[in-house]
Write a structure and sequence with these properties.
8 helices; 12 strands; five-stranded parallel beta sheet; 229 residues; Rossmann fold; Arc Repressor Mutant, subunit A; four-stranded antiparallel beta sheet; alpha/beta
Length: 229
């Protein structure tokens, strides 16, 4: 029998935590719950979850600090942030810091369960993909989110890796900003296309010899971007 995926819920609101735990267990996930950031990090080590649901407003270490710790130790572990903050800048900050997804309160537990399943499917699909892709003097391990330019090694955030993987998978094809938002971030309208531009700028700094005159990630004016190996 296939082992149930393990979900860690880091949430100090007991009502929300219980609702999430019951909904996830109903879908046959194995669930553990932590009420603080410190306890959450401890459970990441002992429980070894397949995905983490983490509230931003936590006692002690806040959710963003917890996420940074988790991602520094295990970049491929999906983290979905839960928060009452609704401004776009908060969502963008959380995602650009490495969160895999972002759900604002109040939310439907069915929506959260659907997001969990989607991220776990992506994680499974990533394991099936080739580990390393090379172009120019760049090598990138998309699954481990590690990039080498020459002998220099750098880490990629979840969305940097996802953006680069999507562009590589559509090499030579014009890809719109809206398409990247939908396919990489999972949002059709929740974020602005400026978010994509910021990710492209960061990627160019890591892979291009001259970021202002890119050879690999080209701007398609009025549309988006195109990857050329």
């Amino acid at each position: 029998m296939e082992q149930a995926a393990k979900i860690l819920v880091i949430e100090d609101d007991a009502t929300i935590a219980i609702g999430l735990k019951e909904a996830l267990e109903h879908e046959r996930f194995s669930v553990r719950h932590a009420v603080s950031g410190e306890k959450g990090i401890d459970l990441v080590h002992s429980f070894e979850p397949d995905l983490v649901l983490c509230d931003i407003m936590l006692p002690g270490k806040d959710g963003l600090e917890v996420m940074r710790t988790i991602k520094s130790e295990n970049p491929s572990l999906p983290v979905i942030m839960l928060t009452a903050r609704t401004s776009e800048i908060d969502r963008v900050m959380g995602l650009e810091m490495g969160a895999d997804d972002y759900v604002t309160k109040p939310f439907s537990v069915r929506e959260v369960v659907a997001r969990v399943k989607a991220r776990l499917r992506e994680k499974t699909d990533a394991k099936k993909a080739p580990d390393v892709y090379a172009f120019g003097d760049v090598r990138v391990d998309l699954r481990r989110r590690v990039l080498w330019k020459g002998d220099v090694e750098t880490r990629l955030t979840t969305h940097e890796s996802g953006t680069l993987a999507y562009l590589i998978g559509h090499k030579g094809i014009d890809v719109s900003r809206d398409e990247l938002l939908e396919k990489v971030w999972g949002y059709s309208a929740a974020l602005t296309t400026r978010t994509v531009d910021n990710q492209i700028l960061k990627l160019r700094k890591k892979i291009e010899d001259t970021p202002a005159q890119p050879r690999h990630i080209l701007t398609v004016h009025g549309t988006g971007y195109r990857f050329e190996p």
